Amino acid sequence: MSVTVRVPAKVNVQLAVGAARPDGFHDLANVFLAVGLYDEVTVTPSPGGLRVTCEGPDAAQVPLDRTNLAARAVETLAARYGRTPDVHVHIVKDIPVAGGMAGGSADGAGALLACDALWGTGATREELLEICAELGSDVPFSLVGGVALGTGRGERLTVLEAGGTFHWVFAMAGRGLSTPAVFREFDRLAEGRDIPEPVASRDLLDALAEGDAEALAATVSNDLQPAALSLFPELADTLAAGRAAGALTGLVSGSGPTTAFLTRDAGTAEKVAQALGASGTCRSVRVASGPVVGAMVL
Ligand SMILES: C[C@](O)(CO)[C@H](O)COP(=O)(O)OP(=O)(O)OC[C@H]1O[C@@H](n2ccc(N)nc2=O)[C@H](O)[C@@H]1O
Ligand SMILES: Nc1ncnc2c1ncn2[C@@H]1O[C@H](COP(=O)(O)OP(=O)(O)OP(=O)(O)O)[C@@H](O)[C@H]1O
């Protein structure tokens, strides 16, 4: 018997970052939107013990040891519910690795939900969300999907309304960026400046609720973007190419280096994708729309 869970990637339409906290994390106002790019996580009982395998274009960059977020999710759930974590976790990976689209978080949430179904733990949604928050700041959102505001370090979620579907183009970069390194660069660039409390933008929440792509494009923001650009200056060329190709706006997705372009409609997204692909400013290009639902047992 095996259980497969499908989990979406995310883009941050607003990422407001506060000052570094004593625990090293940053308080955020993090508006997540789940988009239709998915990893699939399958768990199967494995008498030989916990093991992880992965397939997909970026599979070589995915750790297959106990540091894999999916393995950590299995071990955490097993410890809580008195199980032995003897499963084979297989990841079919379509979300770019180290791209700022919460790929590892998706696999953590997927493995958690899959093992929960396999073992019939009876855990409540709140208990699962608590484990997600232990695993990483982005993991609760991978479980929930849709559109949500993350506060605290991004793990405390408030579900938001979206009045329509938004059409995106994602440009994958030639190399990854480390999330802690981008936050460190944010701190370095912020030195000597007063960092305001992070708050969600009212105009942005209204644009989401109305499903208004142009209004959303006018209000998206990412406080980590200057830090990502500082570590990866070539991303400025990708952003310029996407805007020149007809996107309403372009921004770095989360900690990057994936760049995200919001377009008026699905047809424009295809055109922007083609132009970006031909621009020579990125490794590959994908089209995806959202919001979509979070982790789901297939
Ligand atoms: C950049 C985002 O992807 C935006 O959604 C997230 O804030 C990062 O979420 P994540 O990858 O799940 O991050 P975690 O695994 O929780 O933390 C990794 C590292 O990122 C930094 N980090 C993360 C979240 C946060 N609110 N403040 C931080 O400073 C810390 O250095 C932390 O050690
Ligand atoms: N299941 C996993 N898939 C991919 N990377 C993983 C996984 N588990 C652990 N990792 C490690 O985490 C690092 C970050 O990978 P990930 O793809 O989650 O980045 P990200 O999408 O930028 O994350 P986020 O957007 O949440 O900051 C990788 O370089 C890898 O070493």
From TrEMBL:
Listed Gene3D superfamilies: 3.30.230.10, GHMP kinase, C-terminal domain
UniProt-listed SUPFAM superfamilies: GHMP Kinase, C-terminal domain (SSF55060), Ribosomal protein S5 domain 2-like (SSF54211)
Pathway membership: Isoprenoid biosynthesis; isopentenyl diphosphate biosynthesis via DXP pathway; isopentenyl diphosphate from 1-deoxy-D-xylulose 5-phosphate: step 3/6
Root EC class: transferase
Transferase keyword on record: yes
GO MF term list: 4-(cytidine 5'-diphospho)-2-C-methyl-D-erythritol kinase activity; ATP binding
Entry superkingdom: Bacteria
Protein name according to UniProt: 4-diphosphocytidyl-2-C-methyl-D-erythritol kinase
Organism: Streptomyces glaucescens
